[in-house]
Amino acid sequence: MKCPNCNKEIENDSKFCSNCGAKMELHCPKCNDIIKRNDKFCSNCGYKLKDEKKNTNIDTNTEKDKESKRNEEISKIMMIVVALIIGVLCLLCLLSYVVEHQNSNTVQKKDTRSNAMKYIDGDLGWDDLTFEEQEQAGRIMDFGVKHGVWLKKWKDD
User: Fold this and answer.
1) Using 50, 70 and 90 to split pLDDT, how confident is the model at 52?
2) Which of 25, 47, 62, 148 is the most exposed place for a label (fewest CB within 10 A)?
């Protein structure tokens, strides 16, 4: 293993660096908690530590290691946040399109009915119609009489 202070190679079971005298603390590779040399499991997170005789999994944590792990975690979190923001924006665009499409269809349905038909349905009075619309309403009612179609306005009479 390497000394986190001077980067000199030292023995795995050293408690202090033989070159600079820095104390060698071992950290759990999963949660970064300080562990003892003979521990088989991390007392903080329960991570199984490999046996020291078999290529130890315990590393001394240098500042560079800590910083690179922290940077990896931050970049993962940032990617998740960006993905969530993009997803929310897509949903908002889709919702906006659906609402606008529904409103435009509703307006078209209301506007397609002529004033003559509104009169026949009882929604407008005779005086509300222009001369041309009165003629059109008369033709529609004549057609209904000739062909036996009972219109709503005449049912009440």
Assistant:
1) very low
2) 148
Which range of residues forms the domain containing residue 123?
A: 115-155
Q: Is residue 93 part of a domain?
A: no
Cα separation, 6 vs 18, whole angstroms: 10
Distance between CA atoms of 90 and 93, rounded to whole angstroms?
5
CATH number of the domain at 16, please.
Answer: 2.10.290
In the chain, the amino acid numbered 59 is D
Closest CA to 115 of 95, 151, 140: 140
91 DSSP assignment = H
In a domain, residue 120? The reply is: yes
Mapped onto helix, strand or coil, the DSSP state of residue 16 is: strand
Q: Are 15 and 55 in contact (CB under 8 A)?
A: no
